[in-house]
Amino acid sequence: LVFPERGWTKAGAILDQPVNGYYWMYFGDTDVWAARSPDLREWTVVETPVLKRRPGRFDSRVVEPGPPPLMTEQGVLLIYNGADDQLRYAAGQALFDASDPSKLIARSSSPFLEPTEAAEKEGQVPEVVFVQGLARFKGQWLLYFGMADSHIGVAVAPVRP
Description:
The chain is mainly β. Helices cover 2% and strands 41% of the residues. It contains one helix and twelve strands; from the N terminus they run βββββββββαβββ. It has one helix at residues 118-121; strands spanning 12-14, 23-27, 33-37, 44-45, 62-65, 70-71, 76-83, 89-96, 104-107, 129-137, 140-147, 151-158. The strands form three sheets. Strands 5, 6, 7, 8 and 9 form a five-stranded antiparallel beta sheet that branches. The chain has a four-stranded antiparallel beta sheet with strand order 1-2-3-4, with no helix packed on it. It is globular and about 45 Å long.
């Protein structure tokens, strides 16, 4: 365990470049916390969640990081998984400050990816899209996600300049 004092968590995503001399990790599987490290071994946790669950929204019961965050011109983009009170999983986006990756700037009010297809609605765990991997390939973004814990899907979008 990276944070034994916090118990078990299955979700973590690390920004691939340091900010002001520190690497940043987003982790958690209820709310999302942040931690920073100078060497990717020793981590200091920000003591309050940086991304919280929101009552009445698509992320009211669960919020956890998806693929590794990206540094953009606007700040640090974190694509995350959220679940509502019925445990319907969908994906949202959060933007953090580029100079302080623990400071939330903006957040999607609705999911950008949610269960709509039969393979996402029916399976081992119904009503689930769960984002995990993101790759830039030949001018496109490929976002890989689990579908009802039974299949793997990919959403494709063009890379914008």
